[in-house]
Amino acid sequence: MDNSLGKNAHIDRWQKNRQKAFKIVPEDGKTLRYLGKDFHVFPNTFWPYTDSQPLVRALRVKEGDSVLDVGTGSGVIAIFTCYGGASRVLAVDINPAALKSARHNAEAHGFGDIMEVRSSSLFDSVGDERFDVITANLPFRNKEAHDVVARSQWDTDFHTNTRFFEQVGKYLKPDGRIYFAHSNFGAVKEVRKLAKENGYSMRRVASVRADETKEFYAFLIKRSPQAKPV
Name one GO molecular function term (predicted). Predict the structure, then answer.
């Protein structure tokens, strides 16, 4: 068997099992320990996991920065930007269960007055606001997603990632920066191509290996010097 096919089959099984686990959480949720802090998740919410750890560890938020967290899930990245000193955090997601989890966690960590959680498909409900920092942990793989839980891991026709890079400049301040999560089993080449085509430079700033088959990355993305202002 081709090694890449075997690896893809292994990742498929692992991701499908995780999706099942997300769905069978008790109605009142469950609490998970992540980077030394407790986070609560309700059914159908993507759990805090190693995938976002490189981003959280590489993240640099200046005191008073404004942050937009795209695809917030349980809200972990957004909450760590609050701990980092952000004065305004907007966390968006399309999944109602994720929104419930993120709102719960914002309040539980004492950031209900700093962190707003809003229903939005990418930037659709963001408005005209621009941010110092944009964070994103989007689905890594170009694979058909059959429901909202699968959409946390799979991106049908790579539509979400493509829209992100085409539109993100409208919401980023001129000297703003993007922190972007990805993995060794994801479409990294395609993401690099999207970034370049839309006028951004992309540099890997952190990585964490979860096991012998899975490694997760954080990329720092900025406007290329020659890029035209949006």
Answer: protein methyltransferase activity
